Amino acid sequence: MSMEDYDFLFKIVLIGNAGVGKTCLVRRFTQGLFPPGQGATIGVDFMIKTVEINGEKVKLQIWDTAGQERFRSITQSYYRSANALILTYDITCEESFRCLPEWLREIEQYASNKVITVLVGNKIDLADKREVSQQRAAEFSEAQDMYYLETSAKESDNVEKLFLDLACRLISEARQNTLVNNVASPLPGEGKSISYLTCCNFN
Amino acid sequence: MYGVCGCCGALRPRYKRLVDNIFPEDPEDGLVKTNMEKLTFYALSAPEKLDRIGAYLSERLIRDVSRHRYGYVCIAMEALDQLLMACHCQSINLFVESFLKMVAKLLESEKPNLQILGTNSFVKFANIEEDTPSYHRSYDFFVSRFSEMCHSSHDDPDVRTKIRMSGIKGLQGVVRKTVNDELQANIWDPQHMDKIVPSLLFNLQHAEEAESRSPSPLQATEKEKESPAELAERCLRELLGRAAYGNIKNAIKPVLIHLDNHSLWEPKTFAIRCFKIIMYSIQPQHSHLVIQQLLGHLDANSKSAATVRAGIVEVLSEAAVIAASGSVGPTVLEVFNTLLRQLRLSIDYALTGSYDGAGSVGTKIIKEHEERMFQEAVIKTIGSFASTLPTYQRSEVMLFIMSKVPLPSLHQAVEAGKAGENRNRLTQIMLLKSLLQVSLGFQCSNMLTALPSSFLDRLLSAALMEDAEIRLFVLEILISFIDRHGNRHKFSAISTISDISVLKLKVDKCSRQDTVFMKKHAQQLYRHIYLTCKEESNVQAHYEALYSMLVLISIELANEEVVVDLIRLVLAVQEIAQINEDNLPAYNRCALYALGAAYLNLISQLTTVPTFCQHIHEVIQMRQKEAPYLLPEDVFVERPRLSRSLDRLGPEVFFRQSKISEVLGGSGYNSDRLSTPYVPQLTGTCLPGASRGAPALSRPPGRPRAQRPAPRSADEDRLSKRKSIGETISLQVEVESRNSPEREERAPAEEITYETLKKAIDSVAVEEQERERRRQVVEKFQKAPFEEIAAHCGARATLLQSKLNQIFEITIRPPPSPSGTITAAYGQPQNHSIPVYEMKFPDLCVY
């Protein structure tokens, strides 16, 4: 369709404890900024970024959720339609890592069963304050069958890689599962995303 | 596609040229109006081109957005809006798709202006009613994005407000667009409701914060515009107003969760505000669903802090009042059962100090005063639910609550030991408080059905009399039942006023049902009052309640017989104080004297028997002179001056039974009955537990009057009356209590036959004169020889006969029922008259 300004549209939702750096990751990726005194997110935040992968325009709708408990009900409602979830923890905060099983339960409960989950340990620039070892996290992610990556929003380490890798994975998943790529009449407001990931299962 | 418009304009399709022409050279100039008219005309005349126009416009718009040419973006949007408004036709569908794509594009932008622009267009679109909307449209993204905008945290507060307002308007638009169409994306699905409702609440909730900021003059002008909170409230009302039966649950659940998550139950103002909005905007026939959900939520929060539970209960109470008659829905008892269960749980928590009864580690500390507050809130809520119920359901509820009151020696297992007793007592108090709350303002027209024996028996059982606090509740409950004309507050203080007309009492005549009720239960009530008087732990409140109770019975339920009984009762109470076999302290004795004085003063004025009033007045005056500590004015003060020489009082300060029966007997009251001293009696079915109060019943064997048989003449008279027609005899049944052998010494008060029992239950009170007249008639017919009666009747019958013949000759028409007319006119027993009529009637019947 000539009208579309993208070939793929994916919805990505960031989740994790409050203060682990979800908003900073998104800002770094979408705007190339690292806002130093970033306040707590209220409810949900929305960002959009179009990237080009192998000549294909991929539009990423990024929903950045509040980590605070009080917004849990509204944030949960955003899991359902997500194509991918970025589960973030803070490598300098043991507590944020220990909460991960709880987050996985939430994902299990609210997200689609075809969702791709990526485990991200943020704040590797604060290596001297590290509380969660890379190995531990890697083992955990393996056990849970998740992709795993460590990032630093401040130093911009692995942030591009995180989103671009995720986009690649989403594209290949979409290709694998959808033979009919050029579905007629994409839904307004939805782009083509629904037809990509909802009609078949691939687990 | 990237060619500048105009350079090869002639080669382009017509619609593209028309579209290009609406854009000015300089975006500052705005939409080219004349060209827009041309485009609109073209679109209207060739609707099949509309979708292409839309596609092309949106293509231009997307390009302009990415090139940051926002002036052209606005122009494109304006053009789209105008086309949308102009083309109310079926071909709009494809056009709408390009339109929505453009709105989505604008909403994706980070620029607040574009977001607002997009939202405004969407709202315009939402207000268009489409005949055949496209069913594969999905508003998922819109709902998500608008909800997100509702939570905007833009740095500039003005921009933030604008974005939030846009978000709310957008949600309103989505709701309008989809809510009425079942084939559309179901907006009521949890996935949408869980976004929409919390977003609205979030804005609603921040109203207070915004208002609490010091209002500068600048803000005052801003106020004139609608705030996000007001808008959110309107939107919420609209949403809820459209909710059908099946959708209520999905709409209310996010509210409950939101209040949980933001811990908004505790200050509860917001929670109450929310539910007021809900209750007022929801369709009234669904309001019970909301109540049910709140109850369910209360159950789910059984183990939350008392303050949270109290908040929920408070909200329930408010909601119940709003929902009024429909609040309880079909499951009345279920509602009360839940509330009572919570009450019990709370009592347990307060006693054990933990939520699971085991006191395990890690449980939250339970603050007793918070539990107490919760309990009060539950009781209040029970009251507000009850007040919405019709009378018959209310008495049902009262029976239900009463059946939950733990009473010893019934089937209910009552825990032994001190802890168990304590729990019992607390439960009793709480349930009685609930009962009192339910009975407040309860106006039963028929006491008999409102207060069946099963209820009264339990309420008046001895187990509820030992504890002073509980005893007071029982009295209060009885008072609020009996007081149906709002007289009770007029007697809240005991006094001997010389003129009761200042009280402006509202009195209705005692109805037939009331009379029957008193026939059935009066003895039980008297006995309760009598025994309560004897309790040593009574304080002023008890005496005041006893006074109110006596007075209210006299006002509401009394016929002559009851008045007589009440006077007897009060005299017996005076005797308690006089003889003082229970060794009551001086205060109690004085209080009893004062109670008697106050009541007799009032009843004497109610009966309006001058001699009675005079006697009472004399005694009161004597007391004022000799023993002011026997009058309420001196006893029921903060520091009563009591006399120790209560046993050396002269007879003139007491009310005398003989005197009273003399003066009242002169005014047609039953003086025989009056001169019989009152003895508490067990009537009707009594609880096994009631015998616990038996020792209090026993009178000392040396009492001379207790066993004194009534005078013979009175007995004879009574017996002869019993044979007469329509005679009523009050029921005085002595049920021998197996547990109190002392009572057996006493001779049975009266002969009981099946006849008397039957009459006592069936018959209606007949006025004394009427009774007397009948007795004379019967006597005459019994004693006089038949001939005399026949002659008497015959003479009258012939007179009538001739009169009738005269009339019939004039009218020729036969009377419908001559025999009926005649007997009625005579008012005499038929069997005596029949022979006379039989002789004459055949002639009459010829007509």
Automatic annotation (TrEMBL), chain A:
SUPFAM superfamilies: P-loop containing nucleoside triphosphate hydrolases. PANTHER family: RAS-RELATED PROTEIN RAB. Its cofactor is Mg(2+). InterPro entries: P-loop_NTPase (IPR027417), Rab (IPR050227), Rab30 (IPR041820), Small_GTP-bd (IPR005225), Small_GTPase (IPR001806). It is found in: Autolysosome membrane; Cytoplasmic vesicle, Autophagosome membrane; Golgi apparatus, cis-Golgi network membrane; Golgi apparatus, trans-Golgi network membrane. GO terms for molecular function: G protein activity; GTP binding; metal ion binding. It catalyses: GTP + H2O = GDP + phosphate + H(+). This is Ras-related protein Rab-30. Its main location: membrane. NCBIfam families: small_GTP. It is an enzyme of class 3 (hydrolase). GO terms for biological process: Golgi organization; lipid homeostasis; Rab protein signal transduction. Its EC number is 3.6.5.2. It is a lipid-anchor. Keywords: Cytoplasm, Cytoplasmic vesicle, Golgi apparatus, GTP-binding, Hydrolase, Lipoprotein, Lysosome, Magnesium, Membrane, Metal-binding, Methylation, Nucleotide-binding, Prenylation.
Automatic annotation (TrEMBL), chain B:
It comes from the Eukaryota. Residues 210-229, 685-726 are annotated as: Disordered. InterPro entries: ARM-like, ARM-type_fold, EFR3-like_ARM, EFR3_Homologs. SUPFAM superfamilies: ARM repeat. Belongs to the EFR3 family. This is Protein EFR3 homolog B isoform X5. It comes from Apteryx mantelli (North Island brown kiwi). The lineage of its organism: Eukaryota, Metazoa, Chordata, Craniata, Vertebrata.
